[in-house]
Amino acid sequence: MKRLKKITSIALIFILAIGVYGCGIKSPSNTVKNYIENIKTGKGSDFSKLLDATKENEERKEGDISEGNSQRVVDSMKKLSYTINSEKIDGDSATVNVKVNGPDMGTAMLDYIQQVFSNELTQAFSTNKLTEEQSKKMYDDILSKCIDNIKYTDRTEDVSLIKKDGQWEIVTNDALMTLLINIKDSFLNSDMPVDEKIKTEVKGIH
Q: Is Lipoprotein among the key words of this record (predicted)?
């Protein structure tokens, strides 16, 4: 499921691209607030560069997705809401506890996998085989519907920060990814089959 890995990569790269703008604010809480606000507005992100980055890191062809669906992923992240609950500073380290109502990418991708498998099973017993182009459009249409119907769920996590050169910087880790998209950063680095990885992620978080 290279297409699934790529759509998740787009969300992660978008988060990382925004991340540099979370620095230089006086307090850890304000750093996190600035970071999330930039995600919501898309400030500091260049969508064409975002797509180029995913194309460099992922194989095209099977893994290729439409620009429209790539933009849908980015747009879904702009609709999240959040509350900063608390802040704890320990020297050059800090944690900010945040509650987010954000896109549940894990559940959406599991839904996508199930629909794709169902369609492929139907195709296996069909006498009218789809062309490669028709299959690609079918996958893209399924993905489009899954993203359009994405659910927003509540999640609470501790966001970690470290101070460098007098500025607070957000640490990108599993807790941050779970908070924002409900998929862990380590998701992409696991050798577990994609559908099993997502089922594990969703089961472990809900």
A: yes
CB 177 within 8 A of CB 9: no
Hey, CA dihedral for 191, 196, 198, 203, is it positive or negative?
negative
Cα separations in angstroms, 86 against 39, 105, 172? 21, 26, 19
Q: Taking Cα atoms as reference points, which of 85, 44, 39, 86 lies closest to residue 181? A: 39
pTM of this prediction?
0.74
- Length of the chain, in residues: 206
- The tokens describing 77, both together, are 């992240």
Contacts of residue 84, Cβ cutoff 8 Å, sequence gap at least 6: 29, 32, 33, 96, 97, 98
List, in sequence order, every residue forming a beta bridge with 91; answer none if it has no partner: none
65 within 8 A of 6, measured Cβ to Cβ: yes
CA distance 197 to 45: 29
Q: What is the largest CA-CA distance in the chain?
A: 67
